[in-house]
Amino acid sequence: MKLDFLDVESQYLKDNPLGDSYKRKVAVIRPEEAEGIPAILYLSGYFSSPVMQLNPDPLSENLKERLERLVREGKVPKITLILPDTFTKLGGNQYIDSPAAGQYESFLMKEVIPLVKENYSIDRFAVMGKSSGGFGALHLGSKYEFSAIASHSADAYFEYAYLPLFPRAIPTLRRTGDPRDYVSYFWSQADRKRRDLMDALMIVGLSAFYSKSSTIELPFDLETGEILEDVWKTWLEFDPVRFLPRRMEKVKGKRVYIDVGDRDDFFLQYGNKIIHKILRNWKVDHIFEEFRGGHMNTSYRYELSLSFLSKSLYETN
Questions:
Q1: Which Pfam families has this protein been placed in (predicted)?
Q2: What is the phi/psi pair of residue 260, to 5°?
Q3: What residues does 151 pair with on adjacent strands?
Q4: Do 142 and 255 share a domain, yes or no?
Q5: Are 181 and 188 in contact (CB under 8 A)?
Q6: Spatial contact of 238 and 212, defined as CB atoms under 8 Å apart
Q7: pTM above 0.90?
Q8: Are 152 and 130 in contact (CB under 8 A)?
Q9: Which of 184, 205, 236 finishes a domain?
C-alpha cells in the first residue's frame, strides 16, 4: 500500500489559544488505485497523535504494516486509512471544538475529510479510535454522516474515568496554580514522562477541551480539592453515556463496534458497558466485547475493528 502526506494550512486552527501550529500533515495509507475506495478516519489516544501510528514498533506492527498484512491475508478488503496530525501542547486531543484549545472537530470535518474526498473521490467514511480517540469516534460518529464507528476503550462514564485522577493531579498542579502556567511548566521538565506530570497535564487538557469559554477552568478547587459542580456539570455534558441517548436517531442505521478491557486502568469497562446497554435498548446494530486485559498495549485489537469497519463500508455501497 502507498503512503501519501497531504499538507493542510488550517483556517480553523489559525490563532488557536495554545499557539499550536495551524500547518498540519495528514497521512493517507491507500491502495495503489485509491479512487473511490472507502476510508477510515483514525483518532489516537491521549499523549499520542494519529500520525504516530506510523512509527516503527520492534515488538509489534505499526498501523500501516498491520493494515497491509490484513489486506494480504484477505481479512480486510482494500481500504484507505486517514491519519491526521492532531497533537497539541495539552498532550493530546478530544476531537471537539473548544474555545480554550482549538477547533479540532472543524479541522477534521471541514478540512481533512473534504480534502481526502477531493483527492481520492471517496464518498464512504468510517471513524475509529482508542481511549480519547474512542471518545472522538463516538462523538464524531454519532454527529456526522459516518457509515460505521469503532471505539476501543473510550472515555466514558466520567465519574469513574476521571474523578479518580483528580486527587492525584492536585498536588502537581499546585506547583503553578494557573492551568496555563502548568502547560509551560510541563514542557520545561526534562523528565516529563513521569506519571504525576502526565496525569496533571491530561487534567489540564480535559479542562481545556471541555471548557465553554477561553478560560481553562479546573473542575476542582486547588486548595481544598472540592469538586466545582458548575464546571463538573459542563464536563458531564460531553460524556458519551449522556450524549449518545440524545443522538440515537442519527446512530440508528450505522454499524458500531465497541470493546474494552475487563481490567482497564481507568475503569472504562463500566462506561463502555453502559454504552452497550444504551445501544442494545435502542436496537442499534453493534458488537460489544469485554476482553481480558487493561488499557495499554491493546493495538492488536485493531485487527477486529479494521475488519469490521471495512466490511461495513463495502456493505453500504
A1: Esterase
A2: -165, 150
A3: 129, 258
A4: yes
A5: no
A6: no
A7: yes
A8: yes
A9: 236
> What number of residues does the chain have?
317
Give the DSSP per-residue string, 16-83: -TT---SEEEEEEEE-SS-TT--EEEEE--TT--GGGGGS--TTS--HHHHHHHHHHTTSS-S-EEEE
Query: How far is the C-alpha of 179 from the C-alpha of 186, rounded, in Å?
Result: 10
Residue 36 cell numbers, joined: 473511490
For the stretch 306-316, what's the b/e string if a residue is b when 16 or more beta carbons lie within 10 angstroms of its beta carbon? Answer: bbbbbbbbeee
Q: Give the integer Cα–Cα distance in Å for 180 and 208.
A: 9
Count of domains for the chain: 2
Question: Is the pLDDT at 317 greater than 60, yes or no?
Answer: no
52-111 pLDDT tens trace: 999 988 888 999 999 999 999 999 999 999 999 999 999 999 999 999 999 999 999 999
Q: Assess whether 133 and 243 both reside in one domain.
A: yes
The residue among 199, 130, 131, 196 whose CA lies nearest residue 163 is: 199
Between CA 77 and CA 10 the distance in angstroms is 32
* Burial (Cβ within 10 Å: 0-12, 13-18, ≥19) of residue 103: buried
The distance in angstroms from the start CA to the end CA of the chain is 22
> Contact at 8 Å (CB) between 274 and 157?
yes
**Grid cell at residue 244:** 449518545
Place of cell 504525576: 196
